[in-house]
Amino acid sequence: MLSAVSCKESDFTESYADPSKIAETSVEKQFTGFLQSTKDYILPGYTNYFVALRTSINHYNQVTGWINDSGQYIPGSAGSEAVWFNYYNMLAQYRELQKVYNAKTATEQADRKFFMTVATIYLYDQTQRMIDLFGAIPFTEAGMLSTKTGDYANSLAKFDDPQTLYTMMLDDLKSISAELNTTTINAGYLKSFQTQDFVNKGDLTAWKRYSNSLRLRMLNRVSGVEAFKSRSATEMAEILGNTTTYPIVETNDQNIQINVFSINSDINSKGFQDGIASNGDWYGNTAGKKMIDFMNTNADPRLPILFEPGANAGGKYIGIDPTAASATQTALANAGQVAIYNRYVTSHNQFFPGVIINAAEVNLIKAEYYLRTGNDASAKAAYETAISQSTKFYNGILAVSNATGVNAAPAPATDASIAAYIAADAVNWDKASTSSAKLALIATQKWLHFNLVQPYENWAETRRLDLPTFTFQVDNANNQTLPPVKWTIPSNEISYNTANYSAVRDQDKLTTKLFWDVK
Amino acid sequence: MIMIVSSPAFAQTITGKITSTSDGQLLPGVSVLVKGTTSGTTSDADGAFSISAKPNSTLVFSFIGYKSKEMVVGTQTVVDVTMEEDASQLKEVVITGLGIAKDQRALGYATSTINNEALVKTASPNFASALYGKAPGVTINATPGGATSGISVSIRGFSSISGNTQPLLVLDGVPIRNGESRNTDFWGDQRIRGNGLLDLNPADIESITVLKGASAAALYGSEAVNGVMLVTTKSGKGKKGFGVDFSASYNVDKIAYLPRYQNVRGPGYPLNYNNGGQDAAGFIYYDTDGDGTKETRGLLGATVNFGPKFDGQPVMAFDGVIRPYSPSNNSYANLFQNASSSNINLAVSKVTDNANVRFSFTRQDNGMISYDSKNSKNIANLNSSFNTGKKLKTDITVNYVNQHTHNRPFKVDRMINNFTGMMNRFESADWYFNKYQTSQGYKYVTAASGNPSLTPDENIKYNGFKSDIADYVWSTRKNTYDEYSNRIIASLTQHWDITPELNLRGRIATDFTSERIEDRQATEKPLAFGYTGSFAMSNNLYNNVFGEALLTYTKKLNADMTVQVRGGYNARKELTTMFGVTTDGGLSTESFFDLSASVNNLKTLGTNTRSRFTRDAYIGTANFDYKNLFFVEGTIRRDRTSTLAKGSNSFVYPSVNTSFVFTDVFNLPSFFSYGKLRGSFGIVGNYPQTYQANVAYQQGSLQVQQTGGQSVLYTYMNSSYGNDKIRPEQKREFEFGLEAKFFNNRIGLDVSYYNAQIVDQILPLSIASSSGAKSILANVGTLRNKGLEVGINFSPIQGTGANDFNWDMVINLAQNANKVEKLANNSTELLHQDYDGNAAQLRSVVGRPMGDIFVHGILKNAEGQQVVGPNGLYQLDPEFKRVGNAMPKLTGGFINNLSYKNFSLDVVTDFRVGGSIMPTGINWMTSRGLTEESLNAMDAEHGGLSYYVDASGNGIQTNAAAGPAGQTVYHDGMLMDGVTTTGEANTNVISQAVYYNNTYNWGGPQYSSSRYELYVKKNNFIKMREISLAYRLPAFIANKIGTQNVTVSVFGRNLFFIYRSVKDLDAEQTNASTRWYENVNNAGNAPAFRTMGVMLRASF
Lengths: 519, 1100
Description:
heterodimer, A: mainly alpha, two-stranded antiparallel sheet, 21 helices, B: mainly beta, 22-stranded antiparallel β-barrel, 8 helices, 58 strands, 46% strand
């Protein structure tokens, strides 16, 4: 009777390990694990849009319209914490990748070095986004728990100065550009690179473009900071002056983005619908007045692609005025007058790509750079190219939609409509007489291009340039009367990394500007 | 096992019957020994015995509670014996570890036994909720919800700082599945879960013995850190012949203990709070006829209720109906149903010379207050014992529970823990019943969402609609969720008396559950607008096999001393497999519930797991008995477990205990009937959960990501990090006790003092996510629990006959002092929870009881004065201060049983002193202006100050009718007592709406001015837990209808509070989990309710 249940030592050891897990991994598999760990914050996902962005950044950027309420300028803790957790989980996967890589022999490492190099580009992209949100963050010592074999007491990480991190990343990305130019991938590893790299499908040139475009983005962001001024000017000149050595994203074909291949895989945009267009009155996709009015006035060819009129609006595009009383705002919305983000193109499009960096963005950076350096012709060319590329970029997204049961597919924008738009009064480069007016044009186009598709980039740029200019209802019933200029460190970090946090506590205020926010 | 039937060779066989002198009842289980030999037997269920003895032998009859008797047998072969009760001896036999029955006087540690009578009087659907107040040191915490919601049992405080605190559940000697239920994460699971103990049927339980301390539970080693509950099911034993018992009950649950809502104001706010476009009276106006004139009075779409006073005049409601502006009196509570439950039990038993069998069948239909939520159980129980030979006995027990739960209660979280879901006093539950779906059965559409509808005229377009409530109504009315399970707990036990001194017992048992779940989410909109709804099904198997062998050797050394030695082995293997799939992308046909309706490829539910657990143990015990008045026992157990890494998975648990019946030795006054001292020491343990320690990579596939590509495989490290070097927890406990009886057992006293240290506490320690994980498994520290338990029995009035007035009372008290003695890495505190963005924290601090609640108090300046900010509200201190502790200090019960003639009345109250809770959701209702408290200072009548607002926005107190510049004078002012940041007295009068909105809001100082210190309250209470009034039909009537005993009763549970310190909710409302630290703040599972019912019991 007992033999049915009596145990051998092996019964215990065999039942110790979780049968769904594996004890060891490879550089290749962990590389993909690292890439995918942040996919829900690159592809439009539910938590990012509904919890983190809907009530915060999308309001600060006025890319949506909402109902005024007291306390509205305090970013919700659930959202900022979700972003924080996602980033540090991704960093932990990166450290794990380093750990697996470091355990290899020198030969094995040499063959796989490129995995580490391109992973670093992706990591720095995300790290820059975090710095731009929070300011000082733990980085250089962060994510080391597994590397330190679980020694949690010694894994608490100090907060790094944001300016120092920018410098470090710019240095590293510069050498990465050089390194990639000399990298050749052993054919045996190229195949696995093409499989494992679901972002660029093993295309090393695309990674070079990503790296150099990211450098342009960062250099441009710090271009107004005294300590970075000369570096920014020199390196941007170097990159833009030699795009053979420093290839960048110049056409929509070269856009760096995660494309959805099959909605039955985990790489998809199914979460977008609940993220901005769920049932109930969440105002996740309702249009804001400023953006709608601008697009209306100037017949922006993207208007019918990005937006659709309210159900009872008789085809008119109407946005919610952020300075109106809440009863007025509610009445407008309840009357079905308010335009919403085009469901066919955005929320219900499960093939919506995960945008990382694209040609329109790079050309707008170029335009700003050339404007700054007094090269008006190049600035104008880049500006107009950007508008055309942005419009065609949204045409492209429209083309891949699988949305069903919503509005009909809008017609794509035509070259003629783009040309007419570029000539419109508030868009026309030559009608802007001063360079500050021209900067305002660039900023407006950035804002329109990014809208709620690239919300974090959008917020960084609207804060840096203070353009376009927004007006908000002042919330006198609350300590935070206007939108913040940064997010505060989430309470999880404050609670569990208290000693290190105390060093940055004084700078951690909703009203503390980022170091590059010098205007 | 090979069975040998040996036949003894003696001269003659003597048979006879043994009866009791007091009532003439036949006595089973009497030990019969041939004096001077090792030959012996025991009487059977009919009190008959049969033994071989030489002529002129002396037979010794002994039985617990009776005086031993010796009879010289001549040549006769039939000897009938009567035995006399021994008042000096206790009759109590206690089931102890490994199912060994022991005389109470031999126990060196405290146990509590609760008998069937105490479990069934108020028809509780499970035994645990019938235990409130009935055993000192045993605390029950039930999650509101009803029959399928989890119940937490804790013994002698909490032995784990953050892990499982549930005792091991042992049914007829077999450890069975209980598990945890944790209902704090609404987004992870919207329905309230239960635990395994809910499956056990009170009607089939003979008794429950609680092994509290480490020594009592030592034989369960690594599974016993939280104590052990030994459940013994009813058998036919003690009855004669054929017996039938029947009981039936019916009861109704009604929602109870809601917050004290105000019925004065509706939604909205005054202009001095915020201008949302309302007029001075607080109303807005709609243009309903489209003529451009806004003619219809309406309300702001606000979550706060500082709006206009109810005036009974017409106003537009969210559903488009113009109604008088009055409180609906049909608010939150009406979202629920009155639930009715019934319980029918029929048991038959048959006792013969060689067998006793009891079979019982129970049908339970348990209604719950959550809409359309019900549970039904068919429970069959077989308990049998067969003498298969002179020396062989076989026991077979089978418990079979066939269960169906329909719509497990849906959490009310969104209506309690969320501003936008709190129902206001104007709106009515039935407006939602009418509006949650369209006339075509699709989900409501709000005009603001811009979503398409086939019935656009029905779109919700007026203020006040709360999609959180409509979603709740939709979820409970349109979606269904069914669980079907079959659980079998069966055991086969073989006893073999190899010699009279040597006994072998072998047992094999299983606890097997097969569970099937179907989750149907209805189609929400026409297919033309997209695919919605889903269907999921899952199958779960819980497979638990247990085996045990136990060899017992008893040797009577001489007339005074007996030694008993046992050795044994037992092992348990568990395999849990869970498998579920769901449709993805909606249902392809409206509300067609099948996997084939999936629009995209099927998805796994994310619960597909195999979990294996193996544990075994070698066991040894030695007992020594001197003159039946001094006892010593030592035990040892060596455990191995699969949840720890190789090399550190084996550990040893010893214990020793002793008892001394001093009244048998010393000459004490005659009123001192019985006295016993006891002392014990033991070690028990605990290990991590299955796979929790294992550090390994998770893996996944992104499938093919390009044309002609290969599947993209990846790995990642989980954010809950394991620890291969974890050590088991150990609890070391001393215990001393005194049992005494006075005045011929009229007063009984049982006192225990215990002192337990639990070292190497295992816990998934939360760490900063920037470290590389959100938690890591670690041995974090040392806890101590010490306390005193007192049980008093007292009969103030003792009737001498059956019809006399009789009154028995029981007082149970338990005081427990918990202390965190040490934390790893010399930390001084451990953070369990951070609430609402640093608004409050639950911490365990070294040197203090675990569970301190910290909040931000009012900022004080250098002079110690309270600082008021420029906004007229108190400024919060950025530092935390301690304002409460979650550990109760004193718990217990007060039980009275009164009987007179055919009536009997049972009254159970239980109480708790100490232990704070922080019901955040209920306090947020004050910030929304929903509670009576939020009316304070709303006008001059309610104590509001009169003031006007000056140019700089400050409120200036005034008696004038208008401000100096003609400003409006408001009468809802409050003035915070304190000084400004520069030290001047605060004079800034603020609207009470601003005060309540900010003071009881969500979030820490980073987010708001909420004073969480006001949320933390001591949770002291005395609750009328159970009342049962029963009437027994006179015997002549009962006999006429062919029964022996018929009782009808009315009863109630959770009836009212005699006292409670927290007024706006049931004292148990925040119970959400079997872990203590999850029972502090969440009031959002289900409303509390009270139960009343009737019952009929009869035996034939």
